Structures are given as structure tokens and as C-alpha cells.
Amino acid sequence: MQVSSPFNPVSPQGLATKSLLELVLWLGAGVFVIVAGLVLVAAIRFRARPGAPEPPQVEGRHQWEYVWIAGAVAVLIAIFIPTVAMMRAAAPPGGSEDPGPDIIIIGHQWWWEIRYPHGGILTANEVHLPVGRPMVTRLESADVIHDFWVPQVGRKEDLTPGYPTTVVLQADRPGTYLGACVEFCGAGHAWMRISVIAESSQAFDAWLASERQPPPPPATPEAVAGEKLYASLSCDHCHASTVAVGPDLTHIAARQTLAAGRIANTPDTLGRWLADPQALKPGVLMPDFRLTPDQIRDLVAYLETRR
Ligand code: CUA
Questions:
Q1: For residues 270 and 277, what is the distance between their CA atoms, to the nearest angstrom?
Q2: Which of 46, 175, 257, 295 to pair with 133, CA 20 to 30 A apart?
Q3: Centre of ligand 1 from the C-alpha of residue 76, in Å
Q4: Handedness of CA 235, 237, 239, 242 (dihedral sign)
Q5: 194, 213, 232 — which closes off a domain?
Q6: Distance 195 CA to ligand 1 centre (A)
Q7: For position 4, what pLDDT does the model report?
Q8: How many CB atoms neighbour CB 146 within 10 A?
Q9: Which pLDDT score, from 0 to 100, does residue 145 have?
């Protein structure tokens, strides 16, 4: 899965980020051309020639130093003013009556815990948004520094343990927007992907309602056996909502991907994941239980009922 481009924003916050990014890119390109050009000219024009004496040694020219100090200050001001404007555009709305965040995203090695505190919902790795509605989102970390970035949706932001921050997530076009952790956070960093799924108000409300429901009880013999196996292996030792060593699995079958965006979520890939987690995501904390093919079939049947 490819991470989306910041040059195709779908929100006012993303648009503000894109404008600032373009400005800095163009200014940086200009500075590069001037500096590289001057170095090139100097290297060619003042190169050593055979038999020539040592050239006169020049200490520096004060007038020119004023020019480039002024130039650097001008470039900094040209970046500073739109940066402040961009920070305002991307900041959460202030106000005395704070209803608390709509969404809480908590970085873990190497997945994302996602909570909707008003709805009492806990999920992982996939953020659902109603199209066009700004969602105040608090970012936290459970362990080390992570960095949340879904380029089309808005600014990137560090998740620092002990220092929660708040951003606004918004998407004005329906779609799935891919992002990633962009701060090296250990062995599984490369597979710490996140997706933002923007959908109509009705679809979003339907998703909230289905996440709030407990999944149906397992119906087939395989699924019933899988449920027993799930309990005897103590899967909830890590995956229960109160522990959160691993992602909540209450509605795992309703998610699009497995292992924080590593692979599409199908019964087949779920079986491969259970058979050898390290093969798909080296470093992952999920143990290899050395399950037999029958056990994998039963567990998959059970987990597939959890939607
Ligand atoms: Cu989390 Cu890199």
C-alpha cells in the first residue's frame, strides 16, 4: 500500500500544509541554485592554472555580508509568516466549553489504537471520519516517540509519551487515505501504517453503530472451536481493551487490513498471519504459537465472525 501524496490534499488543513510545503520547496530550490551556481562559477573561474602564482588572499567583503544576512532574514520571514498562518489553519478550534476530543489516537510499537470516546468505541489502525466534519483528535503514545502523518488529510505530528497533542482531522472527499508512522520507533516501524476512511454521515453513523454492537456469537463448529482456542491461548492477555499490547480484535473482521496495514484482511491472509507473524512483519510482538493447520482454520473461522 502506498502512502498518499501531500500534493493532493482533501481538507483545509491539508491544503494549508501543501501551500507551505510548496513555498519552502521553491525557496529551497532558489537558494540551492544560487549557492551551487556561485560555487560552480568560482571553481571554474578561479581554478589553478599551470605556472600561475598563488592568487591574492581576500579576507571577506563587509558589504556582501550585509547582503546575505539580509537575504537569509528575508527568506526566514517569508517562511515564518505563512507557517504561523498554516498552524492556525491546522489547529483545533479554541473555546471555553471543551467537549474533549472526538477521536484519540495512541501510538504503540507498531500499531495505532483508536478510540472514539463519545461513542465508547475502541478500534485499531483505521480511522473513520464523516466527510466534511472537522474531528478534534488527541494524539498520545504508549511507549516511544511515533509520528502520525496522513499527508492528504493534514499536518504531521509527533506522538510523544507523556505529552498529548491535539490536531484536527478532516476529509472533504470520501475515500481511503493512507498514512504512516514517520518517526523511527523500532523494528516494526516500516509497517506502522494507518488509514483514514472518509465516508458519508450515514455510513459513518452506521459504522459507529456496528462497532458499538458486540459481534454475533460463532455459529459453525469451526468457529466455536476457534472461540475455545482463542480463550485457551489467552489471546486477550494482549488484545483486550484494558491491556492494549496488541490491537483490539472485537471487530477485526470489519477492518480492511491486518498488522497495521501490512496486508489486506482476508481469511487467507489472516491464516498466514497466525501461521507465522514474523514472516509478514519482522519484529512484531505477536508470538508464533506454532498452530496446526486445523487450529488456524478454527481461529480464522472464529475471528471472521467478529465484524
Ligand atoms: Cu511508530 Cu515509527
A1: 10
A2: 257
A3: 30
A4: positive
A5: 213
A6: 14
A7: 79
A8: 32
A9: 97
Backbone angles phi, psi at 181, to 5 degrees: -75, 130
Q: Is the domain of 159 the same as that of 178?
A: yes
119 lies in the same domain as 238:
no
Predicted structure pTM score: 0.86
Does residue 105 sit in the same domain as residue 146? yes
- CA dist., res. 86 & res. 15, Å (int): 9
Judgement on whether residues 258 and 185 belong to the same structural domain of the protein: no
Total of domains in the chain: 2
> b/e per residue, 105-129, with b = 16+ CB within 10 A?
bbbbbbbbbbbbeeeebbbbbbbbb
217 Cα to the center of ligand 1, angstroms:
35
262 within ligand 1 shell (Cβ under 6 A): no
- 56: in domain: no
How far does the centroid of ligand 1 lie from the alpha carbon of residue 110, in Å? 6
Instruction: Say if residue 171 is in the same domain as residue 85.
Output: yes
Q: Is the CB of 128 under 6 A from ligand 1?
A: no
Q: What is the 3-state secondary structure (H, E, C) of 129-195?
A: EECCCCEEEEEEECCCCEEEECCCCCCCEEEECCECEEEEECCCCCEEEEEEECCCCCCCHHHCEEE
- Is residue 115 in a domain? yes
184 lines ligand 1 (CB under 6 A): yes
Residues of the chain with pLDDT under 50: 1
Tell me: do 8 and 130 sit in the same domain: yes
- Cα 303 to Cα 259: distance, rounded to the nearest angstrom: 14
Q: What is the domain extent for residue 144?
A: 1-41+77-90+100-213
The verdict on residue 159 lying in a domain is: yes
The pLDDT value given to residue 52 = 84
CATH of the domain at 285: 2.60.40.420
Query: Cell numbers of 29, please?
Result: 530550490
pLDDT of residue 287: 87
Q: Whose CA is nearest to atom 1 of ligand 1?
A: 146
